[in-house]
C-alpha cells in the first residue's frame, strides 16, 4: 500500500508515464477546472495534485478513499478536489498562473502523471478612444478631414487592438492605416462619412470590450470644443520612433569604436616594430 510520502518519492525516483502539458486559460475572478485524465482501464487508487511553478506546493490528495485539500499553499481556501479527481481553483488571482501536475497510482501500482499550464488573464476593461484631427485653415466646414483615432485599455497588459468600420457591415480596417500595434488608426473622411462610426476592439484570449466613436463630429468642431490636433498624436507616435532610431544608432556606435580601436592598435604596433629593430642593425 502506498503512503503519501511514498507517492512523492515515487514521482522523483521511479520511471513514470507522463502526458504532455495541457494549456488552460481563464481570467481573474473566475474559477477553473483542471481535469485529471488517465488512460482507459486505469483504476485510480491514490492521487496527488501539486503546483510546480512559480513555487512547488502540495495542493490536494486522494488517499485511502479520502479527499484532502487543507494544505498550506497560496490556494488555501480556494481549492476543491472533486470525486473524479479534477481540481477546481477559484476565485483566481493574477498571480495564479503557473504549472500544475497530478500524479495517479492505479490498483496495480502503475503511475501516471499529467501536467497542465494555467494562464490567468485580467478582464479587459472598456477601452478609451481619443480623436485627433489634422489642423486646417479653412473658415468653412471642411469637405475632407484627416483624423487619428487612438485606443487604449487602462491598467492592463497582453492586449490586442483591432478596428471595425461600422457602416461597412463589420469589415475590418485596412492594415496599412494602423500604427503602434493597432492602437492608432489613421482615417481620411469625406462628406459622405459624416455618420460613419469606428469601433475599437480591445481583447485578450479570454475577454474583450469595445468603444465606438463617430470621428466626423470632431472635424468641424475642433476649435470650439478644444479637440486635439494631429500634432498631439505625434507626441505619442514620435517618441516611440525616436527611441527605436536612437537604439539602432547606439548599437552601431558601440560596435564602430571597438573595431576602430583595434585597427589603431594594429597600426601603432606596425610602427613600433621597425623602431625596435633599427638599433640592432
Automatic annotation (TrEMBL):
The keyword Acetylation does not apply. The gene is Slamf8. GO terms for molecular function: signaling receptor activity. InterPro entries: CD2/SLAM_rcpt, Ig-like_dom, Ig-like_dom_sf, Ig-like_fold. The lineage of its organism: Eukaryota, Metazoa, Chordata, Craniata, Vertebrata. GO terms for cellular component: membrane. Keywords: Glycoprotein, Membrane, Signal, Transmembrane, Transmembrane helix. This is SLAM family member 8. Residues 127-214 form the Ig-like domain.
